[in-house]
Amino acid sequence: MARAGGIAALGEVMQLAFVPDDFDAAITHWTEVMGVGPFFMIENIHLDGMKYRGEPTDAVFTLALAYWGDIQIELIRPENDAPSIYSGEYAQGNRLHHVCILVDDIAKARAVCAEQGAEVMVEGKFGASEVIYVDPGAGPGSLVEILQQDPDGPDLFGMIKAAGIDWDGSDPVRKLG
């Protein structure tokens, strides 16, 4: 049970995210061995106003999203060596990199994280959606992504989840954006 006021009180985990050593091999594993897909790829993302540990960064990354039931699987490929959570001490290879929770109020989430001593590692915006990644203190591998989606934006996650229902294995990687 979550401790009152703890980070878990902000919401349920909706995503497991990985930064695999071999991005393409990871997609093949998830689609062919695990039967999860299709993956929707968004290439060369740079968050607006992106900061790593409070300093601006030019980090660029590609991600692929799919659903395994109600859990979103995210695979991430860094596209450059700019400071980020995808390189250095936070690079996790083929292990779990972070989990994600969705919130309605990112300011409240920041306050809860600050109360718990969680350091904001990355912050930025993707369109009208604001995101922070926090380290709650146990070191690499325990990052939590907290995302406040644009309530008036397209239901991207819903579309990706719907594509996975009764997916027949065809067209395993689809590009977005």
UniProtKB/TrEMBL annotation:
It comes from the Bacteria. Keywords: Metal-binding. Pfam families: Glyoxalase_4. Residues 12-149 form the VOC domain. This is VOC family protein. It comes from Altererythrobacter arenosus.
